Amino acid sequence: MTLTPIRLRVNHKVAPLGLDTAAPRLSWWVTGEGQGRTITAAQVLVATTPNHLAQDDGNVWDSGRLDGVTSHITYAGSPLPSRQRCCWKVRVWDEGGRPGPWSDVSTWEMGLLTPGDWQATWVEHEVWSREDRPRPVPLMRRTFRLDAPVRSARLYVTALGLYEARLNGQRVGDALLAPGWTDYHTRVLYQTYDVTSLLQEGDNALGAVLGDGWYCGYVGFRNERRHYGPRPRFLAQLEVHLDTGARVVVTTDGSWTATTGPVRASDLLMGETYDARAELPGWDLADYDDSAWSPVVTTRWHGTLTADAGPPIRALATLKPAQDILFAPGVRIFDLGQNIVGWVRVRVRGEAGARVTLRFAEMLRGDGALYTEALRSAAATDTYVCKGDPEEVFEPRFTFHGFRFVEVVGDAQLLDLHGVVVGSDTPQAGTFACSDPNLNQLQSNIDWSRRGNFLSVPTDCPQRDERLGWLGDAQVFAPTALLNADCAAFFSKWMQDVLDAQSPAGAFPDVAPRLVTEQDGAPGWGDAGVIVPWTLWRYGGDLSVAQRAWTAMTRWMTYIGEANPEFLWLRRRGNDYGDWLAQDGDDPKDGFGSRTPKDLVATAFWAHDARLMAEMAAALGRREEARAYRVLFERICVAFQTAYLEENGWLRGRTQTGQTLALRFGLLSEHLRPSALARLVDLIEARGDHLTTGFLGVAHLLPVLAEGGRADIAQRLLARDTFPSWLFSVRQGATTIWERWDGFTHERGFGDPNMNSFNHYSLGSVGQWLFEGTGGLLPLEAGFTRVRIAPQPGPLAWARVTHDAPTGHFEVEWRKAGDTFELDVVLPVGVTAEVLLPEEYRSAETVQVLGSGRHALVARAEVLI
CB within 8 A of 61, min separation 6: which ones? Predict the structure, then answer.
């Protein structure tokens, strides 16, 4: 009956290397038999070796018994030096004051914390061509000797551009497209690898392949390159400890040599060309003769080196084609059956010089050809030139595509093809399933769009010449993302990009990193600088991002407030997108026809920011600031009602989004809410039970209806499959979320190719409702320490949700059979749940309170058992 901590994490990662956080966040789950189990205290020991921990000696930090600590704590020991390896364990006390056993031991390791720790020099290869186009990819190398067996070794490595590190003929790690995208003028991420097993006594070789990536390749929709610099650079520091006790440091410097290899061109948007005839076998081995290579050029860079706080980009899955179509003589098109992000791996056979060309698209035209118009200037084409071996394998290094269909042409024989799914490694943390296969497909579409667009930054789309980290898209989708996947580390990394992009005036941007679209942030977009930290706290129980961003968030609030003394957001609205792609204009198919006043939307989001700032300030112990933001919220509410409230509960503009935001953000006095909700219902029914909300309103529509007692309307909207609705694209065969409700229809074909992405997660923010409304699992307190279970079944026969929260694993499953409603619940240790059965299965507003463990409830219509 003891309670045991499991699943230890440091900054949301398992045994991470190379941290530069002075006070890491230590977290765990707790497991234990029985129901109603609670945690009353915890103790953490941190030591330099497992032997110290075995003796219960926390020689780095002993927290002692900490009452009230349950599932996480911030390290509060002595300052940790660079390279410090820490071993740690935790135990907890149960509801009876009994201590449980210690957890298994986990670890973390600090990175290079000061500029003086870096001895390496930036190096680059000055490629012969200075033309502004993708160029041959550089190879770099150097050799070194180790005079004794290796005890341990770490490689600290990064690039301005992209890198693949090589050590004695082996790839270092499995991270792809590293080091990821940041504002390279400000900071670059570095990765840390344990390379002990790759080294040998005697001669060794360290090398790298470099790609243009985001640093000097094409980014965005301006058809421009070299946004940050003209060519990629490389930085590496290998630190080796020998059995003799000696320490050897190998760094990038002027002794390295460079050349170009078989990758003749590589670009994230344009694709990759690989000529296998130009391969240099053994170039990354110690005995290779590099006398014909050129010396590298040493250079400088003046930004900040930061340990990578996010998850690595990895190959997450492989898919076999669902169909092989002979489109025309010599032209084959493969259908993966699923719109993905990544590339393909092909096996081919051909004489030296034979080639295969691969083109990628999300959709097919009516004649069966690839639909590439919506890619705009992104070529999305890979080419492989054979060297003449009996069998050759090609898989690109430094590009990615958004696609379902692959066109293959060329005179080489294609032996095999697989799709490779690539993205930031954010493990699945939630599932949703129900009795309606269309809603299950919608859930699949939502999660595939998250998986594809979470690649270093949360992009709007992965296929065309854009792929930017739009803040508005990210803030509306963040709750859905966090319910489906372990995205805490991913958002923590990206929020630093947001902070780096803040203007001197205090404005957050529209995109982060701030590139191509460089104006100060618009309402609903710049507000992500406040909303995302709050969402990470709400769903992840982690205040560290809010604490780190506090000064930046207050500067954003000042930026708005100084320009708008009337407490209406009338000025400093940037690009002012309004309720982007709303469907309530005079022409319901005009995606830009929103009638919701843009200043109403702006003021609503300013008030929302103020309320979230007040909540975060209180949680951070900033009492005076919490009070000030509560006052600001009230003043904005008064101004909002004066400016925008009309008779009978109407908001100016009389749109679904206007009514929804006023209700969702608490901008109306309590006595005004019923009439405002009634007008929202009127608007929905006037459209034949269809929504008209755009990017900013769509996430809040169904929750507002349910909160007001109109879950029936919410369920009807969710079930619609005619335009505009969530299931309309499902009916058209979508396997990801589309940018537009009607990006393609069987009757009319494709929409405007200038803006018609078929992998665009914003409208998938309804996924939050699938978990919290249909499934019924809603957090009431930060980090899921207290939850509400209140399913909204509507016409469905059953639904099931699971979620791995910071406190542990949750399950909610319900079934309807005649007049019987069955509810099965699994709650982690230390969690309480308020259970509210559907209205038709309860005789009054009766809330049951459940503790941890497994519970089974059965109710009959109007009679609770």
Answer: 44, 45, 46, 75, 76, 77, 78
Q: Once rounded to an integer, what is the mean pLDDT over residues 72-88? A: 97
Q: How confident is the model at residue 127 (pLDDT cuts 50, 70, 90)?
A: low
Closest listed residue to residue 848, CA positions, set 863, 858, 833: 833
What are 136-169's pLDDT values in tens digits?
999 999 999 999 999 999 999 999 999 999 999 9
Structure confidence at residue 83 as a pLDDT band (50, 70, 90): very high
Distances from the Cα of 751 to the Cαs of 352, 739, 745, in angstroms?
Answer: 43, 11, 8
pLDDT at site 710: 96
Structure tokens at 434: 């129900």
- Residue 134's pLDDT band (boundaries 50, 70, 90)? confident
Spatial contact of 612 and 530, defined as CB atoms under 8 Å apart: yes
Mean pLDDT for the chain?
96
**Distance separating alpha carbons of residues 382 and 268, to the nearest angstrom:** 11
For the chain, how are helix, strand and coil distributed in percent, rounded to 5? 25, 30, 40
Say whether 840 is catalytic: no
820-827 and 297-299 beta bridge pairing: unpaired
**353-365 burial: b if 16+ Cβ within 10 Å, else e:** ebbbbbbbbbbbe
Q: How many CA atoms lie within 13 A of 142 on its CB side?
A: 19
- How is the beta sheet containing 786-789 ordered, strand by strand? 777-779, 786-789, 832-835, 848-850
DSSP notation for 711-743 = HHHHHHHHH--SSSSHHHHHHTT-SS--SSTTS
**What are the pLDDT digits (tens) for 391-414?**
999 999 999 999 999 999 999 999
Q: What is the amino acid identity at position 679?
A: R
Mean pLDDT in residue range 624-651: 98
Rg value, the chain, Cα: 28
Position 593 scores a pLDDT of 57
Residue 237, CA atoms < 13 Å, CB-side half-sphere = 19
In order, the DSSP letters of 552-619 are: HHHHHHHHHHHH-TTSS--S--TT---STT-S-SSSTT-TT---S-HHHHHHHHHHHHHHHHHHHHHH
b/e per residue 637-654 (b: at least 16 CB within 10 A): bebbeebbbeeebbbebe
Please report how the helices 698-707 and 656-664 are oriented relative to each other, as an axis angle in degrees rounded to 10: 60
- What is the pLDDT averaged over residues 56-61? 95
Phi, psi of 798 (to 5 degrees): -160, 160
Among residues 164, 466, 772, 813, the one annotated as catalytic is 466
Q: Which of the 8 DSSP states describes residue 754?
A: G
The residue from 392, 739, 772, 813 that is catalytic is 739
Active site residue 739: yes
* Helices vs. strands in the chain: H and E counts, helices first: 15, 47
Q: Residue 514 corresponds to which tokens in the numbers above?
A: 């701030």
pLDDT in tens, 507-536: 999 999 999 998 999 999 999 999 999 999
Closest C-alpha among 559, 585, 488, 575 to residue 782: 488
HEC string of 274-336 equals EEHHHCCCCCCCCCCCCCCCEECEEECCCCEEEECCCCCEEEEEEECCCEEEEEECCEEEEEE
pLDDT band at 864, cuts 50/70/90?
very low
Paired with 414 in beta bridges are: 348
- At 760, list the tokens: 């665009």
pLDDT at res. 590 = 40
Res 592 pLDDT > 70: no
Would you tell me the crossing angle of helices 673-686 and 698-707 to the nearest 10 degrees? 120
Q: Taking Cα atoms as reference points, which of 516, 430, 508, 525 lies closest to residue 471?
A: 525
Q: Which residues pair with 779 in a beta bridge?
A: 787
Task: Count other Cβ atoms within 10 Å, centred on residue 6.
Answer: 12
Q: Is the pLDDT of residue 478 over 50?
A: yes
Burial of 748 (0-12, 13-18, 19+ CB in 10 A): exposed
Q: What mean pLDDT is predicted for residues 556-570?
A: 98
